[in-house]
Design goal:
The chain is α+β, with helices and mostly antiparallel strands and 311 residues long. A hairpin with a 6-residue loop joins strand 8 and strand 9. The chain is 35% helix and 27% strand. It has 2 domains: 172 residues, Ribosomal Protein S5, domain 2 (2-Layer Sandwich); 128 residues, Alpha-Beta Plaits. The strands form 2 sheets. Strands 1, 2, 3, 4, 5, 6 and 11 form a 7-stranded mixed β-sheet that branches. Strands 8-9-7-10 form a 4-stranded antiparallel β-sheet, sandwiched between helices. The radius of gyration is 19 Å and the shape is globular. Bound molecules: L-homoserine. The site of L-homoserine has 13 residues, from helix 5.
């Protein structure tokens, strides 16, 4: 067992246009940091949260990082105390899997602290407990990429059937985060309960096409498949300048562009780092200075969470 562990877990882009709730990939930055420390007093306590503007609960039972630690402490039959510090390095409600990154960092750190050596598939169950608190629904398309790294397909949920999809060399991601907040729970209420057979057919063609495009690899097939006829139409009006930003990214050479998770972040995939950078500049210009933003350009993160420091 360790006395203190500091872990980083990456942000992620979920849905990836056509794969609502079943696909996502991790990016290099941003990401959250969680510190866990053994304490004399039994129980789990959150002692500090930074970067959340005071919005996150200090009660560990209803905190996305706290709940997985409580569950892992019980799983390990550990009777001592654990203190948690959460350092948010990305905005809440950004569409970059902020709650998932904290849940993954906490579960990964608790595993190290308690010396459990659980597999990623076991840790996923604990991280999902945290994600469920944030969005009110069990979806693992941020948690799984953040935990495993790389591009992840969740083939099914009962139990989670995680498939790691190979990512071709030369694939880069650009993300723009316009400074507004979208609550995933609310954003899910905008979605249609039923879809037409025609739309379903289009969507599963694109989903299969995207996976095949990544595996072959075939950038043209990836580009043709990055389409969403079901979720994007219902959500795009919640994101400032969405159509303009998407258009600008495609004109700059992106393979495709769509909403990251439930937004407001927007992602684009490109076949080179230089194109991904240009796409970022054009996306920012298209936002028109109406609103502040951050742009992140990175390769797909293949590593997932890691220990920054432990004692
Ligand atoms: N798949 C989820 C959604 C991701 O689109 O609601 C939320 O980040």
């Amino acid at each position: 067992m360790k006395k203190e562990v500091r872990v980083f877990a990456p942000a992620s882009v979920s849905n990836v246009a056509c794969g609502f709730d079943i696909m996502g990939f991790a990016i290099e930055k941003p990401g959250d940091e969680v510190v866990l420390r053994l304490a004399e007093k039994p129980g789990v306590r959150i002692t500090k949260i930074t970067g959340d503007q005071g919005k996150l609960p200090l009660d560990p039972e209803v905190n996305t990082a706290g709940a997985p630690v409580i569950a892992l402490r019980e799983y390990a039959s550990f009777k001592g105390g654990i203190e948690i510090e959460i350092h948010k390095k990305m905005a809440l409600g950004s569409g970059l899997g902020s709650s998932a990154a904290s849940a993954v960092a906490a579960a990964f750190a608790a595993d190290r602290l308690l010396g459990l050596e659980l597999s990623k598939s076991q840790l996923l169950d604990f991280a999902i407990i945290g994600e469920k608190i944030a969005s009110g629904a069990v979806h693992a398309d941020n948690v799984a990429p953040s935990l495993y790294g790389g591009f992840i397909l969740i083939r099914g949920y009962n139990p989670p059937d995680i498939v790691e999809i190979p990512v071709p060399e030369g694939l880069f991601c650009t993300v723009i985060h316009p400074h507004t907040e979208i609550n995933t729970r609310e954003s899910r209420k905008l979605l249609p309960a039923l879809v037409t057979l025609e739309d379903a057919k289009t969507q599963w063609g694109n989903t299969a096409g995207l996976i095949a495009g990544l595996m072959k690899p075939d950038f043209g097939l990836i580009a043709r498949s990055l389409q969403d006829v079901i979720i994007e139409p219902a959500r795009k009006s919640t994101i400032p300048c969405y159509e303009k930003i998407k258009q600008a990214s495609l004109e700059a050479g992106a393979l495709g562009c769509n909403i990251s998770g439930s937004g407001p972040s927007i992602f684009a995939l490109s076949d080179s780092l230089s194109t991904a950078r240009l796409v970022g500049e054009k996306m920012r210009l298209a936002l028109d200075g109406n609103i502040g933003s951050e742009v992140y350009v990175s390769a797909i993160n293949r590593r997932g969470p890691y220990v920054i420091e432990e004692k």
